[in-house]
Amino acid sequence: EVGHRWLFRNFETISRGALGGPGLSLYWAAKYFLRGITRSRRLGDILSLPFALAPLMDGMIGEDHKIDGCNGAYFLGKLTETSISLSNIVDEYR
């Protein structure tokens, strides 16, 4: 997310946040890890079923804590005449 903020440093923030939380990241990691270990898509999917509940817990995680473990982030902003400084971006880190 900080990378987005630097990339869009000439924009005023309207909204920003996580897309999919750490629970979804955990599920995807477990699923593809188990697919690789078993060398079977079907068996990996079956063995990863207990992890399918993890994304349901993402709603219990606050936005400030969700951002570090999310599987994607978004930034919506408005173009401005000024640029945000690197120190201000660091201060904005959640």
What does this protein look like?
The structure is a single chain. This protein is of the alpha+beta class and 94 residues long. The chain contains 5 helices and 2 strands, in the order H-E-H-H-H-E-H. The chain has 2 domains: 1-19 and 72-94, no CATH class; 20-71, no CATH class. Strands 1-2 form a two-stranded antiparallel sheet. The mean pLDDT is 93.
Q: Runs with pLDDT <50, length 5+? A: none
Distance between the termini: 9 Å
How many domains, as an integer? 2
Largest sheet: 2 strands, antiparallel
What is the helix content?
40-55%
User: Helix/strand/pairing class, anyone?
Assistant: alpha+beta
**Mean pLDDT metric:** 93
Secondary-structure element order, N to C: HEHHHEH
Compute the gyration radius: what is it?
17 Å
Tally of helical segments:
5
Globular, elongated, flat, extended or rod-shaped: what is the shape?
Answer: elongated
Helix-strand layout with pairing:
Blueprint (H helix, E strand, L loop, with lengths): L1 H6 L3 E8 L3 H17 L2 H7 L15 H4 L6 E7 L6 H7 L2
Antiparallel strand pairs: 1-2
